[in-house]
Design a protein that fits this description.
By secondary structure, the protein is of the alpha/beta class. It has seven helices and 17 strands. The strands form four sheets. Strands 1, 2, 3, 4, 5, 6 and 17 form a seven-stranded mixed sheet that branches. A five-stranded parallel sheet has the order 8-15-9-10-11, covered by helices on one side. Strands 12-13-14 form a three-stranded antiparallel sheet. The longest helix is centred in the C-terminal third of the chain and has 18 residues. Bound molecules: NADP nicotinamide-adenine-dinucleotide phosphate.
Length: 308
C-alpha cells in the first residue's frame, strides 16, 4: 500500500484521461493518472479508427491508444496501474482508495472513467458470457473463423462489429429490433454491400441456446416483433453491441447524474457542482467519440489548472 498526493488526480486512461494528463504535465502541474480497470479505455477494443484526425490511414483502437500513451509517457505523465474504487468528495483535498490498496489524496480531480457495455439482461446471455457470448468482436472474433455468428444491435458498434467479424467467419446475422440502423451512413453502406452479412430487422433475441460441459453457444432464439414468429439461428458466437452506460455509480452520492447516468456539468464547462471536481469524456456525454473525449479531457485539464 502506498500514499500518493497530487494537485490533480485523473481517473481513467482513455482518450479523455490521457489528454488531460498531457495538458497537466505540460503545465507543470503535480498530477497523476490512475489508469482504471482497462488501461487505454474502450478504444483498445475497437477494430478500426478512421475518424480520428491526424492519421491518413485507418489504425486500430489499440494502436491509437498506444500512441497516445507513449505521447503521455514522453511528456512525463505519471500513470499508476490501479483502479479507484472509493471516493470521498466531501472535503478538499479529496481522498480516494484503490483496488490495489493505495490511497490517493488530491486537491482536484478529473473523472474520466468512461463507459461500459450494456448487456441484454437475459439469464441465458449471462450464462454464456465468455463461452460464446461476447461484447468485443476485436477481442474474440478470431475464435469464430469459419463459423456463423450473430451480432445484436443497430448502432455504430453493431455495424462495426459485424463488418469486422465478416473478415473471419462464414456468415454474420445482425439482429436489430427496428427497421433501420442508427449507424453512420458510410458504415451502413459497407454493411449492405457485404455478402456475408444477413440482417434480421424487427427482431429481438429471446434466448441464447447452448450446451453444458463444456458451456458452449449453439444458437439463438429470435422473435419478429411484428409477426410474433420465433425462429432459431444456429450460431457459435453472439456479439452483443447494444450500447454503453457511463461508469459513474461511484459518484452518484456526490454528483448530479442525469437519467442516463451521465455526470451533469456546469453549462459550457467540465466543472461539476463540487469545486475542484471535473468530468470529461464518456462519463458526461453519450457520443463515445475518441476525438470528443480527447477535447473534453483537454478542457477539463485547463479548467482544473485554472482552479488550483
Ligand atoms: P447506440 O448508438 O446507442 O446504439 C445501440 C443500438 O442497440 C441501437 O440500435 C438500439 O436500438 C439497440 N439496443 C439498445 N438496447 C437494446 C436492447 N435492450 N435490445 C436490443 N437492441 C437494443 O450504441 P453504440 O452503437 O454502442 O454507439 C454509441 C456511440 O458510440 C455512438 O455515438 C456511436 O456513434 C459511437 N461509436 C462510434 C464508432 C465509430 O465512430 N466508428 C464505433 C462505435 C461506436 P434502438 O434504436 O431501438 O434503441
Amino acid at each position: 500500500m502506498a500514499e500518493y498526493t497530487s494537485d490533480l488526480l485523473i481517473m481513467g486512461s482513455g482518450p479523455a484521461g490521457y489528454t488531460a494528463g498531457i495538458y497537466a504535465a505540460r503545465a507543470g502541474i503535480k498530477s497523476l493518472i490512475v489508469a482504471g480497470a482497462q488501461k487505454g479505455g474502450q478504444l483498445i477494443r475497437s477494430s478500426e479508427v478512421e475518424n480520428y484526425p491526424g492519421f491518413a490511414d485507418p489504425l486500430s483502437g489499440f494502436e491509437l491508444m498506444e500512441k497516445i500513451h507513449q505521447q503521455a509517457v514522453n511528456l512525463g505523465v505519471k500513470i499508476i496501474d490501479d483502479e479507484i474504487t472509493e471516493v470521498d468528495l466531501y472535503d478538499q483535498p479529496f481522498v480516494c482508495n484503490s483496488a490495489g490498496g493505495n490511497v490517493f489524496t488530491s486537491r482536484s480531480i478529473i473523472i474520466a472513467t468512461g463507459a461500459s457495455v450494456k448487456w441484454l439482461g437475459l439469464p441465458s446471455e449471462q450464462k454464456y458470457i465468455g463461452h460464446g457470448v461476447s461484447s468485443c468482436a476485436t477481442c474474440d472474433g478470431f475464435f469464430y473463423r469459419g463459423k456463423e455468428v450473430a451480432v445484436i444491435g443497430g448502432g455504430n458498434s453493431a455495424v462495426e462489429q459485424a463488418l469486422y467479424l465478416a473478415n473471419y467467419v462464414d456468415k454474420v446475422y445482425i439482429i436489430h429490433r427496428r427497421h433501420s440502423f442508427n449507424a453512420e451512413r458510410i458504415m451502413q453502406k459497407r454493411l449492405f454491400e457485404n455478402r456475408k452479412i444477413t440482417i434480421f430487422w424487427n427482431n429481438v433475441v429471446d434466448e441464447v441456446l447452448g450446451k453444458e460441459n463444456p458451456l458452449e453457444v449453439t444458437g439463438i432464439k429470435i422473435r419478429n416483433v411484428k409477426s410474433d414468429r420465433s425462429r432459431i439461428l444456429e450460431v457459435a458466437g453472439v456479439f452483443v453491441a447494444i450500447g454503453h452506460h457511463p461508469n459513474t455509480e461511484m459518484f452518484r452520492k456526490y454528483l448530479h447524474l442525469d437519467h442516463g447516468g451521465y455526470i451533469v456539468t456546469k453549462p459550457s464547462s467540465t466543472a461539476t457542482e463540487i469545486e475542484g471536481v471535473f468530468a470529461a469524456g464518456d462519463v458526461c456525454n453519450p457520443y463515445r467519440q475518441a476525438i470528443i473525449a480527447a477535447g473534453c479531457g483537454a478542457r477539463a485539464a485547463l479548467e482544473a489548472i485554472r482552479s488550483l
